[in-house]
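User: Hey, my collaborator sent me this sequence without any context and asked if I could get a structure. I don't really work with proteins. Can you help?
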Amino acid sequence: MIKNVGNSINKTMDLIIFKIGGSIITYKNKVRPEVNFKNLRKIINQLPRLNKKLILIHGVGSFGHQIVKKTGIDKGIKGKEDLINFAETQRLQNELNIILTKKLIKKNFPTFPFQASTQAIMRNGRLIKMNLEVIKGLLKLNMIPVLYGVPAYDKERGCSILSGDQIAPFLARKLKAKKIIEATDVDGVFTADPKKDKKATQIKEINKRNFNKVRKMLGKSRFVDVTGGMLGKVSELTRVARQGIISQIIDGTKKDNIKKAFKGKKVGTIIKW
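Assistant: No problem. I've predicted the 3D structure and written it out in structure-token form, which is a compact way to encode the shape of the chain:
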């Protein structure tokens, strides 16, 4: 029998939180939800076998952003139709989570599908509370919880978006994670969108000295994104950087980038304070 899981987990855990962007595991610019299985295989094949605890979080890409943008449920529940849209968005994102965990289980990763919205409370679009007892217990068992961005109950609006970009730093703070690694479709943070501007240069490190300058450079995602794009991502990660938790944003499709990030090598952009 495992005793006192909740009390002992933070004392014994060497935790890494790995977030996979919806832009690389789905075709985010497609109107209909579609998984990018080629990229998904690349990511899973790079995922190392660790002696550390691991939490996976994934974005939802075309399984969420289009329907939310179309229906406006990120702004709250205003009528009966919104309730159906709220339900349908949950269903779509559950579907993506099951596809991802199925692929990981086939590679012998003990993944556990975890719908964060069943444990979370939002207020005006911000995550204010999440019951972590199940996650702590799963980590104690050496399971890998797999969470994802999803609309959740909001005390003021009825519904708002619980994004992976909020979940990752929230868990990092509460569980005293060692590091957050975020795999996206670009190799870190750039001075401009590198897919549009050939003169864009990579920012190797974001810290308290250059954050205000970097923030002015960052634009929003070129695709439909209701969670703030790269600016939203970086803003969330600087919150935990102030508490000593290092984050790293990398291109998850680039050969060996994920392996290098898990080994602590300098790829992509490092965020620390």
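In plain terms: Residues 1-12, 220-227 have pLDDT under 50 and may be disordered. You can pass these tokens on to your collaborator as they are.
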